[in-house]
Amino acid sequence: MKDLRAKADMLVEALPYIRQWAGTTMVVKYGGAAMVSPEHKRHVAQDLVLLQHVGIKTVVVHGGGPRISELMQRLGKEPVFVEGQRVTDAETMEIAQMVLVGSISQDLVGHIYQAGGRAVSISGKDGQTIRAKKKRGAGEVDLGQVGDITEVNPELILSLADAGYMAVISTIGIGEDGMSYNINADTAAGAVAAALGAEKLIVLSDVPGLLRDPSDEASLISELKLDEAKALIKGGHIEGGMKPKLQGCVKALEGGVKRAHLLDGRLAHCILMELFTDRGVGTMIEG
Amino acid sequence: MKDLRAKADMLVEALPYIRQWAGTTMVVKYGGAAMVSPEHKRHVAQDLVLLQHVGIKTVVVHGGGPRISELMQRLGKEPVFVEGQRVTDAETMEIAQMVLVGSISQDLVGHIYQAGGRAVSISGKDGQTIRAKKKRGAGEVDLGQVGDITEVNPELILSLADAGYMAVISTIGIGEDGMSYNINADTAAGAVAAALGAEKLIVLSDVPGLLRDPSDEASLISELKLDEAKALIKGGHIEGGMKPKLQGCVKALEGGVKRAHLLDGRLAHCILMELFTDRGVGTMIEG
Amino acid sequence: MKDLRAKADMLVEALPYIRQWAGTTMVVKYGGAAMVSPEHKRHVAQDLVLLQHVGIKTVVVHGGGPRISELMQRLGKEPVFVEGQRVTDAETMEIAQMVLVGSISQDLVGHIYQAGGRAVSISGKDGQTIRAKKKRGAGEVDLGQVGDITEVNPELILSLADAGYMAVISTIGIGEDGMSYNINADTAAGAVAAALGAEKLIVLSDVPGLLRDPSDEASLISELKLDEAKALIKGGHIEGGMKPKLQGCVKALEGGVKRAHLLDGRLAHCILMELFTDRGVGTMIEG
Amino acid sequence: MKDLRAKADMLVEALPYIRQWAGTTMVVKYGGAAMVSPEHKRHVAQDLVLLQHVGIKTVVVHGGGPRISELMQRLGKEPVFVEGQRVTDAETMEIAQMVLVGSISQDLVGHIYQAGGRAVSISGKDGQTIRAKKKRGAGEVDLGQVGDITEVNPELILSLADAGYMAVISTIGIGEDGMSYNINADTAAGAVAAALGAEKLIVLSDVPGLLRDPSDEASLISELKLDEAKALIKGGHIEGGMKPKLQGCVKALEGGVKRAHLLDGRLAHCILMELFTDRGVGTMIEG
Amino acid sequence: MKDLRAKADMLVEALPYIRQWAGTTMVVKYGGAAMVSPEHKRHVAQDLVLLQHVGIKTVVVHGGGPRISELMQRLGKEPVFVEGQRVTDAETMEIAQMVLVGSISQDLVGHIYQAGGRAVSISGKDGQTIRAKKKRGAGEVDLGQVGDITEVNPELILSLADAGYMAVISTIGIGEDGMSYNINADTAAGAVAAALGAEKLIVLSDVPGLLRDPSDEASLISELKLDEAKALIKGGHIEGGMKPKLQGCVKALEGGVKRAHLLDGRLAHCILMELFTDRGVGTMIEG
Amino acid sequence: MKDLRAKADMLVEALPYIRQWAGTTMVVKYGGAAMVSPEHKRHVAQDLVLLQHVGIKTVVVHGGGPRISELMQRLGKEPVFVEGQRVTDAETMEIAQMVLVGSISQDLVGHIYQAGGRAVSISGKDGQTIRAKKKRGAGEVDLGQVGDITEVNPELILSLADAGYMAVISTIGIGEDGMSYNINADTAAGAVAAALGAEKLIVLSDVPGLLRDPSDEASLISELKLDEAKALIKGGHIEGGMKPKLQGCVKALEGGVKRAHLLDGRLAHCILMELFTDRGVGTMIEG
Predict the structure, then answer these.
(1) Rounded CA separation C34/C45 (Å)
(2) Could you give all domains of chain D from N- to C-terminal order, each with its CATH number?
(3) Of B145, B277, C105, E34, which sits with the fewest C-beta atoms within 10 Å of its C-beta?
């Protein structure tokens, strides 16, 4: 009976948060370790479904770079990167689409169904949700079908949400010419959150959050102002995969999103911990 | 961090139940000890608000006999009961109305507001929700304005629910002649649950549930079929306050409600325990 | 047949007014003599129901001071007033609630039902309709739970109106702390009318309207501009119960209500006379 | 003041009827004397607008035989009737259309506007409201474009009613071949009332109602059962213009309309008298 | 099969236009030759129905001067014109109404029905769609019931469009006094197009469009700016029936309509040619 | 001008069909040659968009066997078929998903966008649209994740249609266990058409239709009754790829679809030819 009481108390502790978030929109950037093991996927799916069930309009944006490289290699094609951008010829674009839309999205939709939720996977081409144009190559290199977002059209996402479906988005953009473009998923997540007027953008990564010293997990920065985040990027203090993630957060906050969170996707149920308990985890950036 | 994980796990344990109950209607009969101490009231209010926030259409029906008797006595009027029924002259009716509608309902609405919910107190006269007629007195005694329900009209309750308000109902009925009638709250709860096509009727009492031997709390009957419940009543095995409670449950189940629960209102958060954990508490009666 | 023709002509005379008021909102402040005799109550209820049936969104706000004092005295508690305000300790608050919500409102709802209308009684706590804070005591006296309105939230009233119910409002406010507050009904009526953007506020009193000389009913002021009304109050020319009534009217007009009327509640069907015939009765104040 | 009280009492007397008819549909067959003098037209328009304003879905069907004959004659064409049916060649059809749709309907719409109502005149061709086929001529005579109704399609009438407009209907039908057909207005009124599931069909004529002896106005039959009405027709006891009127009533009642009324259109405000006072006028036929 | 392919290609050629016009509103001014022969009428009706079926909100405005004069003469009344305006006494007004509303509109509704469309004929009196006032006579002549539009109220037209009906409008206006007014149909078409925020106003006439030299059909002006059109009118270069047509176009464009077209109504399917092929016909005036 | 007239005439010829199909649902099974060359894809996309623009609820179902085999081989995996069914182990399932959802669907969505339409690609897992279970292997062979449809849930397709999007469906089913299943696209098209209550199922293949003698294109069967189609299948007269196509048609017709068409996908705009001209192409099967 004591155990039951503890469980009930936990729900009661979550109540003010459930109230607070009901009716808001949250965009979750899914990627990294959380996307690898079946157990992690199951945990993320449960978190997402819980959000959906307490009335949060939940939207997922995901990447999948390593999986794309892997399929390229299996097909005898060597991935080439220029300043962190994947050079994307027509065949690479096709492979990226197959991995993101045909594999990763479908896989997550299946896990969400298993956890009791309702999801629909879409790419940025569906409903012309992510409009893009060719990225102007830095210097002389032609990056091929790498794109910059020109507009996120939230209509389809909202119409799915109204019908009770969570959109799971692969970040393929569509040009005015009908061409597909490969879009950075972190940036896209920020743009989607802004277009939806989201309450929060939650970015899952493979580190505990933003670290003052990337080699020291104890140097976690718990809270950050938008201005500080921008200064850190400008100062060149952020490197590697964290840089686009932080840029995505900045994009979201500048677009009106209230808060962005960098969470440790290796930590089971980190989304629930952040949203429904008195103690936050990871790094919170405020507009 | 371990603690956070435990909390998140708890929410995940609750998830299948949240899913299961979302969109259903639950009627809670509120009374007894749960209605006395401020702490109990706070707990019940939190439970009700959690139900509301996970998408359950929550409706409360309450009684208040002891509080009516108390005010009668303060006003120099001795309560008279015939076979468990309060003889209700015009003045008694007025006093009952003031206590139920003006005090108990308003008090609960305040607690629900404190817990973050939205509630509206109504009597059965409002919107002609509970239509009643004079109870045919047993034998020669005239019970005065004691009434039997002729019809529960769910329109107002549903229209409040659609607008996001939980109805808190005082069981005063209205006759075709416009006369007020005093209605037994347990019976009314059953009739309201039936009229709403509720998923569950949850009756709070001051005992652990239905006991085989009323003097032995260990003799709790965990599960019961409708037929068994009816047999117990017919056989005269149920006495005191439990009898109308069980009759209310029978009325609900006969009217199409799926399950009725007799819970121990003295137990904090008993409603959450029953609905959101793997182990049930109290007595469950199935149709 | 001549008689029938006279009746039909009457309806035809009322037609332009029926057209004019259809779809508008009217707030009626109910109190005084009109609230005492069964016959008066029946007349007021008929008037309200007729308004409802010709398409006027009708809302009733009522007081009940004398009835509160009476119950206090029966319970051995002496009413204390400081500058016209009832000192309201917790017990007084409870008594006020019981009388207003549990007795007067319920009674009026019954009469409206008898006259063929659909009504729902609410307090300012229901749906957090009247938000209030503690009145800053004049001088050193603590008035207890006497409150000032901080906001009228019209949501519940409108949602009841949309569903075809007339709201009958007891002026109990709710504080951010969940505390109940005793609110002057005349002031509340003005604030409710303003929050609803009402066409008219109609205040029933026990005099023919605003009198230049309170002792001479022939000194009735038929029409008044808002500025004049404010000057009269400021000049200290208005005394007794008429002062808060006139203040309520001023509040309504300043909040955008088009006209306020002070009518003689002792006159049967005075509301219909004012609204549906070519000759006005009482005092009309224009914004 | 006494006069005001009398007026208010009148409204109160009408209240139960206003309640009773609110939300119902009433079809008024307009014709005869009521359609001639400006004063009569004004009275009928006021009655119709009052009905509209107290929430009755009001629909008007009108004829106009004498006006058609008159224009024919002015154009040098002699009207020919066979067994009461106007032989309708193409030119006659054109003339009928001009008189009914272009003159009588437009005139009534103007009067309704003057009385404060909102109306739209339609013919049975508009929205294919009255579908018809050529009447099988009795014997060898070809009646030309005289038609029998095959179906009344209530869609347009209902969509106008939803938008707040009263339909004023000229009884021109449309064949599958697109041909116009001249339809008896009394019959059409019955069919329209049936198709709309009207509460009442009210037929205005130039006599006090159904008379046992057509030459004696004192022989008025106040009430009649459907069966009796059918027997009267079958027995050949009804002659002249009253026959199609009574047949229209029978058609309406057989189609589910609750009551049909034959009123004296010469009597100002006869519709209001019938609907809103305790005493009926004319003949009432019950299903 | 080659033929089938040609047909399919034609549809594909029309596709971009179908897309472009879907959901827009187009007002067609119908008159002149197109209104005379049955074949022309059938063609226009087919065009209108095609517009309706590809999702264009289609509205027709028509005149009918020659038909009015003709009926006047048959009734022994000589038409009188002052500066191009028909002097309109009460009898003339009645005749105009009968011809426009009762004959021409009804006739077109029949043809639209035959072509598979859904139409409802209305006059400017119905739903008070065209409000007008007496035209100030030029000089001393009293033109009688000739009116100027004071306001076009698009409510009824829009509510018919929402219900799937094309409004066919006779340009009779209604004064505040309830009086009918004869309104120039070209002007009215412009005002209706402006009030509806139409995409296009399409005016059918009996010439190929605006001609630089009215006697030379080869002098067609294909495109014109609003300013040029106004200059032409001001310069007195436009005469006869083309002047009010061009004024109607100017009125529409000044009221926000994007483009106005003057088409040759003698040319079968000229509306389809203009809207759905790569080559325009007639004169296009741009705002 | 003659050319313009021909074009307009073509639209007019199409009008009765546009009318007839407006508002109906049509399911197009896309596959074979039509899915190979860019020109064919463009033609099909144009046809689909035209359907969408004339108000047909258009739904596409596609297969992609050859493309799956091709990617398998490139990844060093030999396709194995047993009685026409692809043996589908986990890796094959993954590959099939990538090809169908990530490549073919996305490609078609891009072409539809280019042709001016609005489309969303979904798999049967999205929104649990196609529920499936493991196919009972014929004999001892385990076909792996090859599935039979247990239910088509049309909710998501309908909610996309209401929002103006054409669903493009990859026939991956989802099991109760969350497992993905490979579903025959012809069968799935029939089941989807039945679940939607479609007007027509249109199946594109690489032959002119159903041939009496597969080696002789002149032996085309133009029309067929459902019973005859079933007899042909039962009699073993249908072989190869045509068999599942015909079975899909039978499934659709048995489920209430009115007609099924087998068209030659190699013929440009064959869908438009069938739907909008007087001559049909291919084989039509009627229920």
Answers:
(1) 10
(2) 13-286 (3.40.1160.10)
(3) B277
Q: How far is CA E226 from CA E248, E253, E260, in A?
A: 12, 7, 9
DSSP annotation string for F60-117: EEE--HHHHHHHHHHTT----EETTEEPB-HHHHHHHHIIIIIIIIHHHHHHHHHTT-
HSE-CB at A161 with a 13 A cutoff on CA atoms is 20
Biggest CA pair distance of chain D: 70
Closest CA to C85 of C39, C43, C136: C136
Torsional sign, CA A167, A172, A173, A179: negative
What pLDDT is stored for residue A177 in this prediction? 84
Residue C90, C-beta contacts closer than 8 angstroms, at least 6 positions apart:
C144, C145
d(CA E11, CA E14): 5
pTM for this predicted structure? 0.90
Q: Using an 8 Å CB-CB cutoff, list residues of chain F that contact chain E.
A: 1, 4-16, 18-19, 22, 46, 49-50, 53-55, 115-116, 268-269, 272-273, 276-277, 279, 281
Mean pLDDT, rounded, for C220-225 = 94
DSSP string spanning D71-138?
Answer: HHHHTT----EETTEEPB-HHHHHHHHIIIIIIIIHHHHHHHHHTT--EEEEETTGGG-EEEEE---S
> Cβ of A11 and B14 within 8 Å?
yes
Considering only the beta carbons, identify the residue of A74, A101, A111 that sits closest to F106: A101
pLDDT at C1 over 70: no
Which tokens go with C31? Answer: 């109190």
Categorize the per-residue pLDDT at D174 as very low, low, confident or very high, splitting at 50, 70 and 90: very high
Residues 6+ apart with CB under 8 A from D154: D129, D192, D195, D196
Mean pLDDT of C38-66: 95
CB within 8 Å: D163 and E155: yes
Please state the separation of Cα D19 from the chain's center in Å.
Answer: 24
Give chain E's end-to-end CA distance (angstroms, integer): 44
What mean pLDDT do residues D67-88 have? 93
**pLDDT one-digit tens code per residue, A12-53:** 888 889 989 999 999 999 988 888 889 999 999 999 999 999
What is the rounded CA–CA span in Å between residue B125 and residue C46? 18
Alpha-carbon Rg of chain C, whole angstroms?
19
Task: Say yes or no for a CB contact (<8 Å) between F113 and A75.
Answer: no
E137 pLDDT higher than 70:
no
SS3 for chain E, per residue? CHHHHHHHHHHHHHHHHHHHHCCCEEEEEECHHHHCCHHHHHHHHHHHHHHHHCCCEEEEEECCHHHHHHHHHHCCCCCCEECCEECECHHHHHHHHHHHHHHHHHHHHHHHHHCCCCEEEEECCHHHCEEEEECCCCCCCCCECEEEEEEECCHHHHHHHHCCCEEEEECEEECCCCCEEECCHHHHHHHHHHHCCCCEEEEEECCCCCECCCCCHHHECCEEEHHHHHHHHHCCCCCCCHHHHHHHHHHHHHCCCCEEEEEECCCCCHHHHHHHCCCCCCEEEEC
- Which residue is closest to C166 within chain B, CA to CA? B127
Min Cα–Cα distance to chain B from A281, Å: 9
A120 neighbors A166 (Cβ within 8 angstroms):
yes
Check: CB of residue B270 under 8 Å from CB of residue B276: no
Residue range E187-194: average pLDDT? Answer: 98
Q: What order do you get walking across the sheet with C130-134 strand by strand?
A: C147-152, C130-134, C172-174, C180-182
Residue F214, pLDDT score: 83
